[in-house]
Amino acid sequence: MNDFRRRNELMLDMLESLARSQRAIAKMIESVADVSDDSPNFAKQLAGNLQTIGRYQRAVLERLTGIRLTRVGRSDGAKPWVNRTVKVMAGGTSDETKQDRGDGENLA
Asked: Which residue ranges are recorded for the region named Disordered (predicted)?
C-alpha cells in the first residue's frame, strides 16, 4: 500500500471518529436541555465544557483537512443600497438594453 493511500485512510478514520464525537455531543446537548430547568448551574458548566470540546474538534478538523473553518457572523442587515442609475422596466429590461441588442424600437 502506498503512502498516499494510507494517509487518506488514516484521515478518513479520524474524520469518522470526529463525526461520531459530534453525534455524541449532540446527545449531550439534548441532555443539557432536559437538565437545565432542574439545575441551571450544572447546565451552564456542562454547556461550557461542550463548547470547549467543540473548539477542540474544530481545531483537529482544520489541522487534518487543511481547510480553515470560519464562524458565520450574525448581525442586523445593512440599509439597502440602491443604484439610482439602474432602471428596470416592466418587461424586465430597460429600453437602452433593448436598443443595444437591436430588438427595441428606435426611441430617438
From this structure: 85-108
C-alpha cell at 91: 418587461
CB 32 within 8 A of CB 71: no
| Domain ranges for the chain | 3-65
Distances from the Cα of 84 to the Cαs of 16, 35, 47, in angstroms?
A: 52, 55, 49
Measure the CA–CA gap between 85 and 87, rounded to whole angstroms: 6
Question: What digits encode the pLDDT tens for the residues 49-98?
Answer: 888 888 888 888 888 778 787 777 788 878 877 777 877 666 555 555 55
| Residue of 49, 74, 69 lying closest to 59 (CA atoms) | 69
Mean of the per-residue pLDDT values for the chain? 76
Q: Which three cell numbers stand for residue 9?
A: 485512510
Calculate ∠ Cα 68-26-59, nearest 5°.
Answer: 20
Query: Rounded to whole angstroms, how far apart are CA atoms 89 and 105?
Result: 14
Q: What's the predicted TM-score (pTM) here? A: 0.47
